[in-house]
UniProtKB/TrEMBL annotation:
GO molecular-function terms, A-Z: polygalacturonase activity
SMART domains according to UniProt: PbH1 (SM00710)
Protein name as catalogued: Polygalacturonase
Subcellular localization(s) per the UniProt record: Secreted, Cell wall
Organism annotation: Paspalum notatum var. saurae
Amino acid sequence: MAVCSALAALAAALLLLLCGGGAEARVLLSLDDFGAVGDGIANDTQAFLDAWTAACSSGEQAVVAVPAGKAYRIWPVQLSGPCKKKLKLLISGAIVAPASPDEWAGRDPMKWLYIYGVDGLSVSGGGTIDGMGQQWWASTCKLKKTPPCYSGPRPKTVHFEECRGVSVQGVTLQNGQQFHLTFTRCSDVKASFLRVMAPADSPNTDGVHLNDSSHVRITDNLISTGDDCISMVGNCSDVRVKDISCGPGHGISIGSLGKNRTTDMVENVRVDTCLLTNTTNGVRIKTWQGGMGFARDLRFESILMKNTQAVEVRKVGFTDIRGTSATAQAISIACSDTVPCRELELKNVNLTREGGGQATAFCYRASGKTAGAVVPPSCLSK
Ligand SMILES: *[C@@H]1O[C@H](CO)[C@@H](O)[C@H](O)[C@H]1NC(C)=O
Ligand SMILES: *[C@@H]1O[C@H](CO)[C@@H](O)[C@H](O)[C@H]1NC(C)=O
Ligand SMILES: *[C@@H]1O[C@H](CO)[C@@H](O)[C@H](O)[C@H]1NC(C)=O
Ligand SMILES: *[C@@H]1O[C@H](CO)[C@@H](O)[C@H](O)[C@H]1NC(C)=O
Ligand SMILES: *[C@@H]1O[C@H](CO)[C@@H](O)[C@H](O)[C@H]1NC(C)=O
Ligand SMILES: *[C@@H]1O[C@H](CO)[C@@H](O)[C@H](O)[C@H]1NC(C)=O
């Protein structure tokens, strides 16, 4: 007896070790356990919601699996947090939307997979999320040439609102009704190893969209859609965009900021190592006159553009910038031959050379005005 229980205890200890050094136990839930059919036709919405509820209330870390080789048709849903423990959605099969906009009758037309208030959710698995946006696009006034046409809101395909510690990695998002992956009022977010695909003429099908979010890493993605590969509005800060293949599409954009006289503060955004191919724009910063706030500490580095129509920088103000520059050229505004930078404003700038001495400013095809003291003297043409 004593020997037996000692052996059992040893076996349990070994199992724990094998399962990751005493890590927490996990539960694996499959949509099929909740009665999902997965034939691409049946309504698997309730099964999906039930699996979410079970996983979210589980006292152990849960993995909700969407099995490979199957397609689950899901009507608009809200998945709400907070959950008891961290959660994983392992999407290896496909989640598909109803094709007809009529299915949204009586529902919020801006939502399909809407995830609210989660903390610690990862989405992965190599599968596909398909917004089936074709009928939505065809009805829009952008594409439909004969009346009546639709100019109202369309569902954001996957929308996280009020989230923390969310990662979406290694899945395909395709044919979004509108933006593919949106984060609103989120922090500590990762969007990596994604394929985001929609036709070049599909309207407003941005790849990854950020609104009022911070500490975001968007890396290692291939994004080919009908609008911006990556866009951000509102109060976004500490955003790193790196190693992105973008195009066709509109490029990477910050803004529009300050629309309708709002205050938008975009800060500390670094975009580097992006290959933009066949995009209508390169990197853009768009702001509105009359708006307040700022776009500051934005860095764009190592951007390679192929067959990109223009780089547009417009209505950007650089205000209250002071400090020292490591290089003699403290201000460099180099714009495109085809679309020069316009309506720039330098206001209260005082940049000197690190270690002392005068700095210089360089402008190419950039026009605008200055206000207050500007050191080194502005090079903007009128
Ligand atoms: C599919 O199931 C969900 C959840 O039960 C329900 O809200 C929706 O109306 C169903 N769709 C159809 C077309 O029956
Ligand atoms: C950003 O989010 C706010 C709500 O927090 C919303 O009112 C606004 O329309 C959003 N902006 C965009 C461009 O989606
Ligand atoms: C940005 O922050 C300002 C000031 O806190 C606020 O007035 C504004 O509504 C915010 N904008 C967005 C889009 O969240
Ligand atoms: C901006 O304000 C105008 C009226 O002042 C309104 O019609 C429009 O919907 C507003 N746009 C946004 C994006 O809030
Ligand atoms: C870019 O456009 C050219 C000509 O319009 C086309 O041949 C090429 O396949 C496109 N490349 C991509 C990656 O879409
Ligand atoms: C700019 O900064 C330097 C060093 O801090 C200072 O000496 C100088 O007076 C400043 N110039 C203006 C116009 O503020």
